[in-house]
Amino acid sequence: MNHIPAVQPIPSGIVTLADHELHARSVLDDNAWAYFSGGAADEITLRANRSAWDEMQLSPRVLRNLVGGNTRTQLLGRTLAHPILLAPVAFQRMAHPDGEVATAYAAAMQGAGLVLSTQASMPLEDVAQAVLSEAQRGPLWFQFYFQHDRGFMRELIQRAEQAGYEAIVVTVDAPSSGVRDRERRAEFKLPPGISAVNLAGLPPAPPVYLAPHQSRMFDALLATAPTWSDIEWLQGVTRLPILLKGVMHEDDARLASQMGLGGIIVSNHGGRTLDTMPATAAVFPRIHEVVGGALPILLDGGIRRGTDVLKAIALGASAVLIGRPYVWGLANAGAMGVSHVLRLLRDELEIAMALCGCATLDEVSSATLFKR
Ligand SMILES: Cc1cc2nc3c(=O)[nH]c(=O)nc-3n(C[C@H](O)[C@H](O)[C@H](O)COP(=O)(O)O)c2cc1C
Ligand SMILES: CC(C)CC(=O)C(=O)O
């Protein structure tokens, strides 16, 4: 381990994830803020992710025996201390110099699962080293974006396997970036010294010469966008379980299940890709109805409160992931900030469980949700 994250105090007055967000706005410059906080286009999906949780109501039971309660759950053959994982977020050194290594330390401290982005700004081996020796750590997964060079992809997957990553999360909802107006207005640029270091050495894509009538999107950029057959190829390349991240349609969930994949993550990329998609909370029940029980279904998008986690579990989610909130924690107080965000969310989840009369997550069910 060559990078020990700084120990930083949590700024006073921060008691919720929303407080972390407010404080992070004063810490991050306009460039980083546009990147981390923004959604696609009019940010309708970004807002829908949040409001869907707010609109859902809980239906508590009273006088139940809560002795021995806990937040433990099973996922891909492991017992997790709680069902909260950190979603892949690119370029975390833009939020704090300790970047993804700080995030990994915090995840290990709090027993949270961690999914490292292909576009991480620190080497995947350094991040794994920060986590693997910790007894209480959660799962460590590598998020994978298909690249144009198969040989490079194979080597990247092998590096992740050798470093100790336990699953590959293929993000399938972003063959193109969304329309990122906030970033364009802020003239977003990666600051000097920050890059996708794990993609260093990727040979440049062969040049494409477009005639004036051709499309840069369809005739160039999308030429290497993955399809279902590329997922099959990946199954042949790795022995690790593969999860698809960005599934929003029950037919795609069915295909994933038929291919024997390790799981799916219901996600709209935190509202950063296709604007006006529904909230993840809104589509989850259809997907659960079709493949629930066949493979683990995780969810992300707009989770900001312990009650949101509880509602996701009540819908049938195996676990949830958070994206932006832990980046706010990272910006505010490095590893301690990420750890604080996780602890706040888990404490809130425990309180919500207790107040709903659920001693364990197995006791949380559709009956925990109020039906109008
Ligand atoms: C700044 C930022 C960068 C992201 N980078 C990636 C990425 O590299 N790979 C990926 O699969 N998802 C990426 N995501 C999406 C997250 O993994 C996750 O789906 C989303 O943030 C969840 O929504 P939330 O931010 O409301 O919690 C990114 C999200 C944000 C906000
Ligand atoms: C570099 C990007 C493709 C990472 C990403 O997924 C995002 O910014 O949402």
From TrEMBL:
Cofactors named for this entry: FMN
TM segment ranges: none
One Pfam family recorded for the sequence: FMN_dh
Entries under Gene3D superfamilies matching the protein: Aldolase class I
Binding of FMN, residues: 88-90, 117, 143, 171, 245, 267, 300-304, 323-324
Matches recorded under CDD domains: alpha_hydroxyacid_oxid_FMN (cd02809)
InterPro entries to which the protein is assigned, alphabetical: Aldolase_TIM, Alpha-hydoxy_acid_DH_FMN, FMN-dep_DH, FMN_HAD
Active site (catalytic residues): 269
Binding annotation for glyoxylate: 35, 145, 180, 269, 272
Domain FMN hydroxy acid dehydrogenase: 9-372
Coiled-coil regions listed in the entry: none
GO molecular function: FMN binding; oxidoreductase activity, acting on CH-OH group of donors
Similarity field: Belongs to the FMN-dependent alpha-hydroxy acid dehydrogenase family.
PANTHER family membership: 2-HYDROXYACID OXIDASE 1 (PTHR10578:SF107), S -2-HYDROXY-ACID OXIDASE-RELATED (PTHR10578)
Protein name: Alpha-hydroxy-acid oxidizing protein
